[in-house]
Design brief:
This protein has helices spanning about 5-15, 60-70, 85-100, 130-140, 175-185, 195-205, 225-230, 260-265, and strands spanning about 25-35, 40-45, 75-85, 115, 120, 210-215, 220-225, 235, 245, 255. The protein is an alpha+beta fold. Among the domains are: about 5-120, no CATH class; about 205-240, no CATH class; about 240-270, no CATH class. Helix 1 (about 5-15) crosses helix 3 (about 85-100). The longest helix has 15 residues, at about 85-100.
Length: about 270
């Protein structure tokens, strides 16, 4: 496949991605060759630095960069072509990388292939040793996302910051009607998509049981109502209490306790 054929196919896949308008800058595709080992590097550059003097490629291979700066006589530098826009430069570099499959070829320094949409890093770590060590230190101890220790005080990422009023990132903004409809739909009906069988099982598991504080262990436990009333070391705020039955004047519901006050009388849905 020729470069022109490769360019036509690449552009046809996503024509809006490319802009071939001259931007006044110098865009070049180059090759660096090691005169002794015969290993090469294909790359591209958009700056005014002199290749082989102040610019030694964008490779992450530190030994490759270091040898160029210390022993420039071992290398040969060749400008393949100069362009007046970024798109032509990237397409040409991608063509060369695909043609030679530089990331898999033992005669190339390149560790990844350039593509029209960026570098293909599939299965390859592009971080240097120093970068990996810095990341390891940054996410160690209490900074590890998997740590279970509560992040209190300065360990909390929100420590000392405010999200109220104008400090809230969403202050003054509004959801579109489409977003509102999506949120409404996600929270309407059976949100967890449970079958009736699952609902019945959950209901049966909760019948006849209460959550109470075990004063011997200082832990909350789920026990039967009989155990709760019989054993003194279980404590609950409503232990042993009974509530008089009351009737809601709006819906005629009869019941006792706080739920009647919460959902009936002045708060009843049937209230006119």
């Amino acid at each position: 496949m020729t470069l022109s054929e490769f360019k036509s196919i690449t552009i046809s896949k996503n024509p809006s991605k490319f802009d071939f308008t001259p931007d006044g800058r110098r865009h070049l595709v180059y090759r660096i060759s090691h005169l002794i080992s015969k290993v090469h590097y294909y790359g591209s550059q958009t700056n005014n630095k002199i290749l082989g003097e102040s610019y030694f490629s964008s490779s992450s291979d530190e030994s490759f960069i270091s040898e160029q700066s210390q022993h420039p006589e071992r290398f040969k530098y060749k400008v393949i072509k100069i362009y007046n826009n970024t798109s032509d430069k990237i397409i040409h570099e991608a063509y060369l990388h695909q043609f030679f499959d530089v990331k898999s070829h033992d005669k190339f320094y390149n560790k990844v292939n350039q593509t029209a949409s960026g570098f293909d890093t599939t299965g390859i770590s592009t971080m240097s040793k120093d970068e990996r060590e810095k990341r390891s230190q940054r996410w160690s101890g209490d900074n590890n996302p998997g740590v279970t220790t509560p992040r209190k005080g300065e360990l909390n990422g929100m420590y000392g910051s405010s999200r109220c009023g104008e400090d809230n990132p969403f202050f003054g903004k509004h959801h579109t009607q489409g977003t509102k409809d999506a949120i409404s739909k996600a929270n309407t009906g059976n949100r967890w998509n449970q079958t009736q069988e699952t609902k019945d099982a959950m209901s049966n598991n909760q019948k006849g049981s209460v959550v109470a504080l075990n004063t011997n262990t200082n832990l909350f436990e789920t026990i039967t109502k009989e155990e709760f009333l019989k054993l003194d070391h279980y404590v609950g705020t409503n232990k042993g209490k009974t509530y008089p039955k009351r009737k809601c004047p709006h819906c005629d519901k009869i019941g006792g306790g706080s739920n009647m006050t919460r959902y009936h009388f002045d708060n009843c849905k049937s209230k006119i």
